[in-house]
Amino acid sequence: MADRAHRILIVDDNRITLRLLERFLSFQGYSCRCVNHPHVALQEAPSFAPDLMLLDLIMPDMTGIELCRAIKADACLADKPVMFLTTADETAEKIEAFDAGAVDYVSKPVNFRELGVRIRTHLDLAEAREKLRRYAVEMEALAAERASQLVHADRLASLGIMAAGLAHEIKNPLTFISGNVQSLRRFWPLIAAMVDRVRGGLSGEEERKARFILKEVPNVLEGMMSGVVRIETIVDGLRTFSRKDDTHHVLLDVNAAIDAALVLCTGTLGSQVAIGVSKSSRPVLTLGDAQKIEQVLANLLVNSAHALADTPDPHIWIGSELIGTTVRITVTDNGSGMPVELLDKIWTPFFTTKEPGKGTGLGLSISRSIIEDHRGTIGAELRPEGGMRFEIRLPAYSN
Ligand SMILES: Nc1ncnc2c1ncn2[C@@H]1O[C@H](COP(=O)(O)OP(=O)(O)O)[C@@H](O)[C@H]1O
Ligand SMILES: [Mg+2]
Hints:
This protein has 399 residues and is α/β, with parallel strands linked by helices. It folds into 3 domains: 7-110, Response regulator (Rossmann fold); 150-242, no CATH class; 250-395, Histidine kinase-like ATPase, C-terminal domain (Heat Shock Protein 90), CATH 3.30.565.10. Helix content is 53%, strand content 17%. The chain is built from 10 helices and 12 strands. The chain has helices spanning 15-27, 38-48, 64-72, 91-99, 112-198, 204-242, 254-264, 266-269, 290-307, 363-373, and strands at residues 7-11, 31-35, 52-56, 82-86, 104-107, 250-253, 274-278, 285-288, 315-323, 326-333, 377-382, 388-395. It has a 5-stranded parallel β-sheet, sandwiched between helices. Strands 7-9-10-12-11 form a 5-stranded mixed β-sheet. The longest helix is centred in the middle third of the chain and has 87 residues, at 112-198. The radius of gyration is 38 Å and the shape is elongated. The two termini are 48 Å apart. Bound molecules: adenosine-5'-diphosphate and magnesium ion.
């Protein structure tokens, strides 16, 4: 039922009939507009915006059927039910009226109770039609959204396959680069000592170069090694992201994973950040890989720590809770947050807002992939008071 009174437009050239209909329908709670000329009705109908129209069949100048056709040509009125007032012998006209788009007729002299019931029925039907139409529009939008999500999932799946291939290809040469850099590091003190010993016999210019090389090579080797470690981290991350089936699922306590992640991150969090821990007093058990869950929580804690770099009173809250058959873990901070339009992108591999060297953009995509392997969900929201809140839901273990 609409919360406003339904509007009915009544058109009849007989003023007495008009008055009787108006009195009855107003008494029934409808808001009526009575018009005794079809041309006036046509003019006033759009602004009155009736929910239903009651037209006399035979009128001077323009018949009810012509009026009905003209009304149905107006897009705003086309869906509104039209009913006719007829006399018993107008069978041919009644049929024509249905052709013109009418939904029903009531014979004169009018039985008011019957008229009331029929009007109610057609208004209900019109409302149901409108609801269906809106529902169809919503369904269409939902289908379009799901389709685009599927395309996205498909792209991510291809990206996963590509990532696994890339990781494999990079890992092999990386292993010998890493091995060779380590050998060079081992050899260098020996070489440095030899060069140092023969330095006396070198010319001034050569001696200057030798001194420079002796000083620089250790830095070069360190730089190469940290580059190798960084590539290794990314490659391992890519492998975790793309490998779905090597998770070893055992019974684990989420509270223990929270403790372990906090210990892992002690160095990054430093002493400036206040940590609020609110763990469920009961053990919160789930089936999974403890190390991977710890990795996810550590990723979230490190991200929060980074976002808190310029916050005057930095806080992180981490907590667990058992809600029915779900374990909920939240990590919240009062850090910088991020522009709302980027929020959807944070789960995309390699999306980072951090400067090169600080972020790889893999933390959250790996975290999501791990949580999904655990048949869980992970989401993020911006807090109105500033900062971000991450929520993980995992199926609780019950025996
Ligand atoms: N707690 C947070 N507060 C603000 N921004 C965040 C937070 N966590 C993640 N982000 C945003 O999401 C991006 C992606 O995070 P992540 O996948 O872990 O990659 P990375 O940390 O290497 O940049 C970050 O660069 C940052 O912009
Ligand atoms: Mg990160």
